[in-house]
């Protein structure tokens, strides 16, 4: 599919992914979920894989390996998925009904409208507006 420049190309398996100890991988997975979801770091536009690695006292290769193996996506995709999931909640919540799409995009952590629309379409197959119309009652 080429809409929003989404590429579903072939993945190559990086050798270093298999070198991470399974016990450590499981531990890091839990910590990644805790930091990104429970502490809502996915909303921070400046929160990078490098900063996550620093918070976990590890390196970015380990973070990358854990995210790729445990979540089957890269760090940016994982963060964007959490943002889209949050946006879906806001789009269907009556308390946020008057907000513009740009405001929703900003609240969940996207830097610009184009990135928001591309990520939203990637994970839902709909634009945010279509999703809102399909999932709200008048």
Automatic annotation (TrEMBL):
<keyword id="KW-0804">Transcription</keyword>
<protein>
    <submittedName>
        <fullName>AraC family transcriptional regulator</fullName>
    </submittedName>
</protein>
<feature type="domain" description="HTH araC/xylS-type">
    <location>
        <begin position="30"/>
        <end position="134"/>
    </location>
</feature>
<dbReference type="InterPro" id="IPR009057">
    <property type="entry name" value="Homeodomain-like_sf"/>
</dbReference>
<dbReference type="GO" id="GO:0003700">
    <property type="term" value="F:DNA-binding transcription factor activity"/>
</dbReference>
<dbReference type="GO" id="GO:0043565">
    <property type="term" value="F:sequence-specific DNA binding"/>
</dbReference>
<keyword id="KW-0238">DNA-binding</keyword>
<dbReference type="Pfam" id="PF12833">
    <property type="entry name" value="HTH_18"/>
</dbReference>
<dbReference type="InterPro" id="IPR018060">
    <property type="entry name" value="HTH_AraC"/>
</dbReference>
<keyword id="KW-0805">Transcription regulation</keyword>
